[in-house]
User: What shape does this take?
Amino acid sequence: MKTIEEAAKESAEAYEELRLGKLCVKKFVEGVEFAHKWIDVKDELPDENEFVLCKMKSNDAIVGGYIQSTNGRLEVLTLPNFEFEDCMNYEPISWRPIEYK
Assistant: This one.
């Protein structure tokens, strides 16, 4: 698998003759970093009923679920057929949307 930098350089080769190669590499890397960003639950919450990836406070485990606020405390609700032991009451610290193709 290519690194982000290798893929960026390969993508930018077509723009070298226009002297845009370095800019293309920079923008490619910025785009990848943005796409991989986790959103802190203190900054923003997903839409209600949006199934997202959640990073858990207890052990940085990543689970899919729905984030909801109960009595001022955030928790992740998982699908009925998924069991996950969490010593901190399913409390999320960050989330990111799931891209479906």
User: Anything to note?
Assistant: The first helix runs from residue 4 to 12. DSSP finds two helices and five strands in the chain.
